[in-house]
Amino acid sequence: MMLLLRFILLVMLWLSVFSNAVAQSPLDKDDRLNVAVTLHHHVISFSDLVRDLQKQTGVTMEVQRDIMDEKATVFVENKPAREVMEKLASVFLLRWERRKAGGYRLVPDADARKWERDFLALRERIADRLWLEWIQKGYRDVQRGRGWIEQRIEELSRREDRPREGGREEKELVPLTAERERLYTLLRWSGYLAAQVLGRSPLLMWARLKRGEIIVASTQPAPGELPLRIDAEVLQEILEGREQLPDPPSPQAHLVLALSEEWRWYGHAIFFDAPGAEYFEASAPELDVRVVLRFADEVVSERDFIRLLIPCDFVRPLTQHPLIKRWQVWQTPEESLLKEPALSTPFPVSRPEYPSLGIFGEVTDADLFCWFHTVTGIPVIMDGSRLVNRYVRPSTDTPARWLWEFTKAIDTTGRYLIRYEGGYVLARRKVYLDVRQREIPERLLSPIEAKVARGEPQTLDDYAQLAAQLSDKQVRVLPVPAGGFFSGIAFTSDIATRADLTNLWQGNVHMARFWASLSPVQKRTLWEGEPLAADSLSPTQKQMLLRILLGEERTDCLFDVSWESMQVEMTTEIVTLLLLRGRVERLITASTWEGSEEGSYSIEDDTVLKSLLDSPDLRSCRGTLVGVVIKSGGQEIAGRAFALRDEVLPPLDPPRCLWQETRSQSAKWSAEHDWVVHPRLFAALLNT
Fold it and tell me: What is the pTM assigned to this prediction?
């Protein structure tokens, strides 16, 4: 009871301090801030936004350095600068300081930032506890015998059915389901081997993984490697589907463990519908497990990911954190939002077309709120992001219902806290702290987008310089090859840009970083067609080569290749590039077809592709396919290709709503054509 009372008092004190800070705003008595401003920015950094405010008001303004790269989305028409500045501070927990020279400085609220740090630290401790319990208990469970675990699962399955038959609450199944899923994880060979290695010194091993180290274990450990034992039962599971094991029955084996860089926004679900679960999911890591088995005449490589489920007991401390309580107080309650008179008037019958997803275009929340502002005239201030919205919402009848849907989004990153205050809509993602870490700063994207706006080609150095400045979390939003029907034809991206980032897709990042690390002399050597000896590289450059091998599933090479036998080479080839050009420039393919050879694919064979090439949004241009290859003993063991266009094209014309017109054009074109592409096209596209 005492702890609960102390907690309530702390929350009340913090809210009191926050409300007093707002009430005593230094903006209140400055008549210069009564001037009306108009801001229309899909995504803009705080530094550029404050610069725009300064230009329109004539009042000197600046931003504290550590928040200059944070982003906002702002749609405001003829509103007093003071109101806009106050609403901006409310959304991001900031405050305005009066400077001696009469200007203002935008700074983070010190107390709020401390609470954010405490929240992130608490979440990290929870994640550590979750993984350490899995390592320790999992290892002991496996040691007791796999047969016992199978019996335990059967017992849990029988117990799970009883509460349903008795009509008891579904929440009683949560701990049983969590235990069963944990045991199923241990039954996989990846969980068995990982727990076996990490279980020797769990705290030490987990700390090493969190520092980004790669842990290697082996049946014949070299210096720096850990011992590994694979019994016949686990070996049979790894080689599942074989009638007999290859010789010898006890092969040499290597196990590689690392915290995965495969951060997937949409690939995982929280299985427990607990309040606050979304605050945890974006931070939950995956354990990347790779094993290489060496037999007398073959090598077998396997890979698996371990991602633990999150029990409600682990999530509950997050939901009780004062920072979360503060945002719950800040947002307009759902029932009040739906009853707000100003938001209850139906949308006009005659209104702009609702943003929709085109084949090669992207839709963002900024596009959706741009549509909302255009239709209703209601000013919008929200956290800015280039993240693509994969679940485009339908246009509902009223603004209130439309906003309410953003609080109930399917995907974690699309769930918003919505506040309606003084005629403004204020919105902030629930997982803003995670989105902020994954956002690529505008200062890094602007140079490439500016080149596209001028019609200039993008160079390998442009991509390399961008890759070298990205964090691993920022890399996870870059393009990946499209799956399913469009596999091999297009790339999907988690961010929307006015420039083609296909060359910097996630698989190319490490190679681009390697290129950025080379000296001018090393680059010139490769451009002139001479190989670069790996033994002459710096230790940092050698680590980059190892990362490239890991990224290309060439784990086996890590244990065979010596630096003396490895070298880096570059190849160049003149190709025809196909570019989708509308309001966005997008690389479609980097292949040339001069004719049809036996077993190859020809454009002339496919009328659909020919019609695609005749589309006004698609054109071909001259380009160079640059390949960077790693060889050992004369054989290629890894390589990446960069398709660079050489021809200068007319500049793009960015629309008012940055990406909406491109999507409309793409959707219109796709509706007029029957997309049935010849299967052999996949082999021809992006062949390198």
Answer: 0.79
